Amino acid sequence: MSQTTTHVSGFTKLIDAENERFRETHPRSYDLATQTAKSLLNGVPMSWMTHWATPFPIFMDRASGARLWDVDSNEYVDFCLGDTGAMAGHSPRATVEAMNRQAASGITGMLATADAIAVGEELGRRFGLPKWQIVMTATDANRYVLRLARHITGRPKVLVFNWCYHGTVDETLAVLDDDGRIARRPGVVGPTQAPSETTRVVEFNDVAALERELAHGDVACVITEPALTNIGIIPPEPRFHEALRELTRAAGALLIIDETHTMCAGPGGMTAELALAPDLLVVGKSIGGGMPVAAYGMTEEVARAASPAVEEPDQNISGIGGTLSGNALAVAAVRATLANSLRAEDYARTIPLAARWTEGVRSVIDEMGLPWSVTQLGCRAEYWPATGRRTAADAAKMSDEEATTYLHLHAINRNVLLAPFHNMALMCPATSEADVDLHTNVFREGLRNVAAVR
Ligand SMILES: Cc1ncc(COP(=O)(O)O)c(C=O)c1O
Hints:
Elements: H1 3-25, H2 27-36, E1 60-64, E2 67-70, E3 75-78, H3 93-103, H4 115-127, E4 131-135, H5 138-153, E5 157-161, E6 174-176, E7 182-184, H6 195-198, E8 199-202, H7 207-214, E9 219-224, H8 240-251, E10 254-258, H9 269-273, E11 280-283, E12 294-298, H10 300-310, H11 328-340, H12 344-368, E13 373-377, E14 380-384, H13 392-397, H14 401-412, E15 416-417, E16 424-426, H15 433-452
Parallel strand pairs: 3-15, 5-8, 5-9, 9-10, 10-11
Antiparallel strand pairs: 1-2, 2-3, 4-12, 6-7, 11-12, 13-14, 14-16
The structure holds pyridoxal-5'-phosphate (PLP).
């Protein structure tokens, strides 16, 4: 028998055993999946809910703090936390109370509520930008800020970093192919406009390439996370952010920082941690405690430049907000969440937990002498089946679907949820050291099994 055949069959056996165990412990989820398959595309309200490592989707019963229970009464330590939406923990009490109060007295009215004062001021305090808009999702917010940047600069193009993710915004779904040409990101559905017409793409941390691409003079804005978090975690190199700010200013391009995931770094995200000075900033997912809501902020200069447009009588179709943007329920959720969660004292608890998780994973990788790595960013951490990656292009080539899918499924069967599409764990204030150590032990067993069949 050839080596490859042995390896494939070893893996297949491992996966089969986990699938079998999953089926035995999830009969009610199976039953519900059979029923939803009749009326929902891909059998779920959103098709990526099937993209977990399980043979059929898990149906959630309820979640609270760092725990999630499925309809078969399996209890999980949840390190996915809604892929950041539940960074404050599931259903934080103050947010739920505020939402209950607001829901009982009007959910949406196309009018501001007094909560907006506290929300605008608190966002300003955290991120250092004076003017804000509240919208539904980070994807929406990113679309709106790109539009504003083009409006203000009169330029057509957006510059993004290779393998970035800013939601389903067409211009940002672009990567560099092996020949360095701009290509549509693999997996994107539908024939969008050729990304090279809308977008310039360079590697994160590559200052020379950034300078070269900005020199074309057609870039309205650079949009980036302060550290990339959607291709593993790629931190900024020293002085990268200074160069980014200087070069964008010199080129007359606006700088947009997307803090949606990097809110893991602290109450004002990495913008506050690193004293960044963006022209526009987007933050979504976590700020409403799980309620779908996001915000974008801007400097006085950007606000002044945007004002004539937003004061136009036809502003309702200006493309920088939607009917439900800033609805009373969402604003109440943000006010309560920012007043009671995601504060310095919360990060003082969650960041050491992420350090413990990282150390646990690193110790297992070291014990086994595997060429894997693990990176912590605030209260978030992620492992990657490779070492030595410097660029996102390197990281994209170094994935190991087989091993990581197995590890996710193996963990789920042992009551641990990691974020799907990532190997990411997020800590909330309700996460305990025992939860973290459970993950370390489960990861050790899973990785040993992987090593045994390789
Ligand atoms: C950095 C970043 N920005 C924006 C988004 C889009 O968020 P949403 O899907 O809530 O619109 C994501 C989603 O993962 C993200 O990672």
